[in-house]
Structures are given as C-alpha cells and as structure tokens.
C-alpha cells in the first residue's frame, strides 16, 4: 500500500467500522494522510490528539482548516483558531475567499457577528456578500442594501442586491438593477481563427 493514500483511507474506514481505531490511525499515519487522520481521531473522542496531528506547531494547509478550527473552538481555544486563520490570511496578503469566509463564519458562529461585520475586508466582493448576509440575518435589510448599492452593476452583487430589493417590496428597482448588471461578453465564434465552441 506504499504511496496509495486512497487505499489507506478505504482500509482505515473498514478498520474503524470494526472498532480497530488504533490500527486505522496507524495506517493513515504511515501514508501521511493528515486530514483523514485528524477526522478519525476527532470522531473517536481523541480531540487533543487530532489537534496535534492537524496543527503540529504550524498549519500544513488550508484544506483541513475548518476541521482544525472547529476542534480548537470546541476545546475553548477559539482565539487560537482565529489566530491561525489570521496568520494564513496575512501570508496571502489578505486575499483568499476560503480564508475570509472561514474567518467570518467562525466569528458569526461564536456570537461575534458585530466583530465579523466591523473587520470584514469590504474591498473584497466575497466579504461584502458575507457581511450583507449577516446584516440580513440580524434584521438589517436596509443596511445590507446600502452596502451593496454601490456595486449594483457587478454581476453577482447586482443579483444579490436585486433579491434584497424584492424583499423590501421594491420590485421595479430590483428588475432595473438585474437588467443593468455588467455581464461578461459571451465568447464569439469566428471560424477563421478558432475551433467551434462544441
């Protein structure tokens, strides 16, 4: 099974189903299957060990970040989880929709919506969408509309704004916003210089 992570994961599932968790964990360790190993350990009540596997003094990658952050938060280590996300965000120059979304979701889920809204990078379209959604959940529909209004011509945000306008009973404005959105030009087929699009 040397080098075959897929086979190792399947074998580990079968071993876990038989109650042979230590053997399953060893198989995953041998194949360096960090994320599946962390999840296996957490499912079987070995949360501290799972955290150590997923975060051995440094995050190995963002793919297992939601699992790691959830485990840390479960153990009352929310600020540590947030610091990990912040460090990864800083290493990307503050970009990365997955990381921004992770951070905003974490703050929101732990009763820190005001902080999520206040600290969201509103120059990022993804973050604006998250913040608008949080505002709507708080009953602040007018604030969400105001936030998205300057971006009404953007394809995604314009549509999101149109939906909010409908909820406010402003259907005519919603239709106008939806029609005025910037849409990318569809590719044009020119038989002299390109292959057909099919």
TrEMBL record:
Annotated organism of origin: Actinoplanes lobatus
Transmembrane segment boundaries: none
GO MF entry, a single one: identical protein binding
Superkingdom classification of source: Bacteria
InterPro entries according to UniProt: TPR-4 (IPR011717), TPR-like_helical_dom_sf (IPR011990)
Taxonomic lineage from the root: Bacteria, Bacillati, Actinomycetota, Actinomycetes, Micromonosporales
Full protein name: Tetratricopeptide (TPR) repeat protein
């Amino acid at each position: 099974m040397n080098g075959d992570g897929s086979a190792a994961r399947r074998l580990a599932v079968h071993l876990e189903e038989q109650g042979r968790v230590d053997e399953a964990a060893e198989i995953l360790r041998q194949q360096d299957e960090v994320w599946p190993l962390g999840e296996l350990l957490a499912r079987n009540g070995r949360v501290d060990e799972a955290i150590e596997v997923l975060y051995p003094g440094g995050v190995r990658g963002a793919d297992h970040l939601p699992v790691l952050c959830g485990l840390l938060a479960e153990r009352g280590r929310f600020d540590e989880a947030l610091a990990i996300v912040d460090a990864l965000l800083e290493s990307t120059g503050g970009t990365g929709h997955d990381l921004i979304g992770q951070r905003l979701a974490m703050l929101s889920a732990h009763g820190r919506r005001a902080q999520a809204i206040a600290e969201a990078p509103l120059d990022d379209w993804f973050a604006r969408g998250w913040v608008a959604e949080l505002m709507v959940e708080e009953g602040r529909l007018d604030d969400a509309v105001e936030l998205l209004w300057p971006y009404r011509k953007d394809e995604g945000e314009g549509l999101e704004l149109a939906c909010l306008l409908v909820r406010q009973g402003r259907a005519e404005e919603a239709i106008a916003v939806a029609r005025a959105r910037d849409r990318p030009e569809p590719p044009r087929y020119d038989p002299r210089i390109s292959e057909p699009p099919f």
